[in-house]
Known about the structure:
By secondary structure, the protein is mainly α. It has a domain at about 15-30 and about 40-65. The protein contains two helices and no strands. The protein is globular, with a radius of gyration of 14 Å.
Amino acid sequence: MANSNNYKxxxxxAKDALNKFKYEVASEVGVNxxxxxxxxxxxxxxxxxxxxxxxxxxxxxxxxxTK
Length: 67
């Protein structure tokens, strides 16, 4: 079955910034990502990256709300 992604990016221009952010966070949590395909990393490592990205984005949003 073909993978159909019906999700639309809210801010398509943010793709490059989020990708850069992902690599920065991966480096911080000790996960080595390579350019291109990274489907061989463990779910645990992928979760570390995603979880830390969410924490940082929430922190930034909270900081912006208090200004």
